[in-house]
Automatic annotation (TrEMBL):
Entry-linked InterPro entries: CheY-like_superfamily, EvgA-like, NreC/VraR/RcsB-like_REC, Sig_transdc_resp-reg_C-effctor, Sig_transdc_resp-reg_receiver, Tscrpt_reg_LuxR_C, WH-like_DNA-bd_sf
Organism this protein belongs to: Pseudacidovorax intermedius
One Gene Ontology term from the biological process aspect of the record: regulation of DNA-templated transcription
Keyword Phosphoprotein recorded: yes
Lineage of the species this protein comes from: Bacteria, Pseudomonadati, Pseudomonadota, Betaproteobacteria, Burkholderiales
Name of this chain's protein: DNA-binding NarL/FixJ family response regulator
GO molecular-function terms, A-Z: DNA binding
Length: 199
């Protein structure tokens, strides 16, 4: 399996690759400058484990790149990073299938934390696995906090973790529940009685 970094800006691509190689020295990291090279690269380097995708590429722009990747590899995590502020593009990217959104203005520590969190979540090591059909303690906490209307920043403050880690926790929660948004997660929780034990 390989991690694919798709970005046409060499410096940014190298920065992402450097972080990934520090986090996962044994993983094969493949660099691409266009999305249309992906299929051929997968043939040569193997099934993807993670995509790190720039929103603006020579052959795709905006969420179209995310949609293209998820169409071919629906079960593979996608980390999107962009020069656009999260307020402008994050929600659209998540709806398109991205798992986390990283602003290019983020410092190296933030970038590292976000990618580490996503890799750990995909490995199942971010927290102890929950019994089949049940939520973990952290996921139960998150449902309660979503019900209170807390923002990611509020949740991060209460749990004393970074906002990026909150996003990864939410991603795992959404994946567990089979939903794509906070609203859908709360609807699922209410209709399945997941909130009744929290009150």
């Amino acid at each position: 399996m390989s991690i694919y970094v798709i970005d046409d800006h060499p410096l940014m691509r190298e920065a992402i690759v450097m972080v990934l190689r520090r986090l996962r020295p044994s993983e094969n990291v493949v660099e691409l400058d266009r999305l249309d090279k992906l299929a051929n690269a997968v043939e040569h380097h193997g099934r993807p484990k993670l995509f790190c995708l720039d929103l603006k590429l020579p052959d795709v722009t905006g969420v179209s790149g995310v949609l293209t990747v998820k169409e071919s590899y629906p079960d593979i995590p996608v980390a999107v990073y962009s020069a656009s502020p999260a307020a402008d593009m994050e929600e659209a990217c998540i709806e398109a299938g991205a798992d986390i959104y990283i602003e290019k203005s983020s410092g190296s520590a933030e970038l590292t934390a976000a990618l580490r969190g996503l890799l750990l979540a995909d490995d199942g090591d971010l927290e102890p696995p929950a019994p089949t059909g049940k939520l973990s303690r952290r996921q139960t906490q998150l449902i309660a906090m979503l019900d209170q209307g807390l923002s990611n920043r509020d949740i991060a403050t209460q749990l004393e973790i970074s906002e990026h880690t909150v996003k990864v926790h939410l991603w795992r929660l959404f994946r567990r529940l089979g939903v794509k948004s906070r609203t859908q997660a709360l609807h699922h929780a209410r209709s399945h009685g997941l909130l009744s034990n929290l009150r």
